[in-house]
Predict the structure.
Amino acid sequence: MKISIRRRLAVGILGGTLLIVAIIMGITYYYGRIETLREVESGAKNLARSYAELFEVTFQKTAKVPTMLGVYLETHPNITDDDLRSLMQETLRRNPEVYGSAVAFEPNSFIPERYYHSPYYYQNGEKLTFVQLGNEEYDYFKWDWYRLPKEADEPYWTEPYRDIGGGEVIMTTYSVPFHKNGRFWGIATIDISLGDLMEKVRRLQVGQTGYAFILSREGKFVTFPKPEKVMQSGLEEYDKRIAARMTSGQEGIEPFDDPVTGQEAWILFTPIRSSGWSFAVVYPVKEILSSVIALQRRMFGIGALGLLVIFGIITVLARTITRPLEAFVGTARRIADGDLDQPLPATRFEDEIHDLSMAFGKMMRDLKQYMNDLARTVSEKERIESELKIARDIQRSILPRTFPPFPEQNEFDVYAVNISAKEVGGDFYDFFYVDDRTLGFVIADVSGKGVPAALYMAVSRTLLKATALRGFPPGECLEKVNHLLIADNESTMFVTLFYGTINVHTGDLQYANGGHNLPYIKRKNGDLECLSDAHGLILGIMDDTTYGTSSLKLKKGDAVFLYTDGVNEAEDGSGSFFGMNRLETCLKEMDFCSVEEAVAKVKAEVSRFTGDAVQSDDITMMALQYMGPDGEESLPPQTM
Amino acid sequence: MNIVGYNDRDVLVFRIEGRLDSDTCERVSSQLDSWVDSGEMWLVGDLSDLEYINTFGIRVFLSAHRKLLIRGGSLVLFGLKETAKEIFGITGVGDMIPVVASKADALAMIQRG
């Protein structure tokens, strides 16, 4: 997949920035949340405590009234019913916040004949109304407000209750036990209406959707946003643990599933000590964190805007980088197609692109130079190669290639082959009539390769033939050729050369050797002999060298086999030589049928040995078979 | 092919390892030429590790030998293997360039002048 630089830059930088923004937002949210919660907690705590205090003050102030009554009765045990009533009336008048007050006595203890005695006054508009409590229907001894403080012998705030008149007003009663002669005598009470306080609590605005409520000692709702729950059920219905903490008088803050809004909230509660109630403030989390969330939103907006700006910058920047590169790509493609004269795109800054452009320019110039040089070299090489080819063709053309060379002659049969190596070599062979009955034959190998070797070979061959045609015996012939070669030889070229003559009528063979590989005689009967007596220095080295002439008689059917070192030094792939032994074996074992066949057999054997290896030197072979006068193979015995 | 030279009693002795043929004759030739050009009168060649030599190698030796002859010196070879002896024999070069049995013989011959 192709991924552009722009995309990589965008992904890399935007990804990184996004990560940073996300981390900053996360941290801000985390600390903002902690800070906000702390603020809300302290605010809520203050709120709750101040409201609890409000209740506390009311309770404590009104609690004095029954206490005073109790104290008065204990100090005036013989008080009359009338005096008691006056006292009660006076007390209520002085304490208008008290709704009503009762003094309930033990059975038959105030007026012996009265089982129930409990005068009760309550505020009824501007007046006070009197009621004598206690009868069979309202047996106050069994009521909590009487029974519980009596049993505990302690003052007691009753659970809140609705006004007897069935109003919405919530009431509570404070009962104080009093004694006569050390024995429990009765209970003095006041009733207070909590209507105003409740209203305050109800109206209390806690944020947008938050609220406050009061839980009684028994865990019932004294106030609650859902009116049907008031006095009917308690917090236990929603959260037993928090309810237990509240009713046991603890202060705290807890997460809370708000049943009113149905959302997550925090609840903070603090006790109202005198009545054992608990005041709670409920804050929905969403609202607490709304400011944090709003901040987050703003930050997100700013972050997104920032990212957009960065993206824009990246796009522009990437374009300034990639545009020259794209131009380069096009140019490079055309260059790759061989157009080295492409103008390079201009660069605006001295940056890396500029460096690349410079390097490209240099590469193109160098490449052009190199290609020109190469073209020149190639043409030069081609020229030399073609010249070499011409040289080789000339060299080959001067070797006799037509066999049999003298079709009208039957006294001998000759065949030769020259297989050139890649480069022009210096092997040559020749045969010619010196006079009408003497055949001269020569095989030679000029040192070195190439054109110099070819030229030297042509010179050697011409000199030899010219000298030989003058009829000198082979040894003398070699001496003269050697002398002529040295006279003009500035270089250190030399030639190994074997020259022989054969009298086609008698089979007399005369020969001399200038450092050449020793030829073989293959007798008609199959014997193989080496012309090992023919030694002499190679030609072209030392002046005044003498060469001896050896002689031998050939019988009908005998053959001479001549070769150059390309045969015995033919190599196989592993660097081994064909060698003299193989050559001798090959010659020994073959049936000498015809000269052509003999040469072909050796050639085949050499090819089999070398296999695919490159031929490093010329391979030249010549075979000459003596057939006898008039080609009669079985000449009648000569009578001398 | 490898050729190294060292001095033994003021005579430069060189030693050729490997093959001396058409592929390596140029290197040997230029090495011998540099010694000859530096003024050596005598060069002693140790051919006991020369595995193969053909007419290309012969030509290198002849060339160096000829230059030393003009100066009144010579190339002296020793340690020839059978194959080398053979080619020296056939070509007659063995009669031109002195070939001895050992380095001691070579140095002795140079001492005699």
